[in-house]
Amino acid sequence: IPVDDYAVGLLAKIAIRQKAEPKLVYEYYRRAIYLNPRFAFWHKELGDYYLMEGKLNQAEKEYKQALKLYPNKLEFLVRMARVKRLEGEFVEAEKFALRALEVSGDHRLALWELVWIYSAQAEPVKMKTTLEKLAFNYQDQWAKSLLAKFKNKKQ
User: Could you tell me how many helices (H) and strands (E) the chain has, helices first?
Assistant: First the structure.
């Protein structure tokens, strides 16, 4: 195994693409984290893999580690919101997504996460307001399509 964290991380990505045993993927990411513990990206990548595997608790742990290193990283906040939503913890999910909106950057992912949170909570007013932000601030076609469905339901 290489001694460079980037090379080990690439091996993990190759292992995922080749549908290797999850144990091998975890070992590669753990090795990359060991070699460069201050690089939050490896925690995020391992969290993404856990999420893909349906292992929400482990994904959450990795995203928390990434957030410890970069507490205002929009991408990490959105991922924590997603995990919390999938766990059914909608209040916590909303907090992470709203916090992501306070960070500079492209807020589309955070806004879409809020749409899913509000949808899961049956909050149509909040969902519509969030879709409007996506439609008008980002010219998001899917948001526009969903807003049209809202309008058609009212007629």
Answer: 9, 0
CA-closest candidate to residue 146, choices 120, 105, 106, 115: 115
| CA 35 to chain CA centroid, nearest Å | 24
Sign of CA dihedral 60, 61, 66, 72: positive
pLDDT, tens digit (0-9, with 9 covering 90-100), for 37-95: 887 888 898 899 899 899 999 999 999 999 999 999 999 999 999 999 999 999 999 99
Tell me the Ramachandran region of residue 139: left when phi exceeds 0, alpha when psi lies from -120 to 50, beta otherwise. Answer: left
Nearest one of 42, 102, 111 to 82, comparing CA atoms: 111
Q: What is the DSSP letter of 105?
A: S
| Alpha carbon distance 146, 57 (integer Å) | 32
- Tokens standing for residue 33: 């984290």
Instruction: Give me the phi and psi of 96, to 5 degrees please.
Output: -65, -40
pLDDT in tens, 105-153: 899 999 999 999 999 999 999 999 999 999 999 999 999 999 998 887 7
Q: Which two tokens stand for residue 40?
A: 């939050």
Place of tokens 């549908």: 19
- Kindly give, in sequence order, each residue whose CB lies less than 8 Å from that of residue 17, ignoring residues fewer than 6 positions away: none
If you search the block for the tokens 């507490």, which residue do you land on? 71
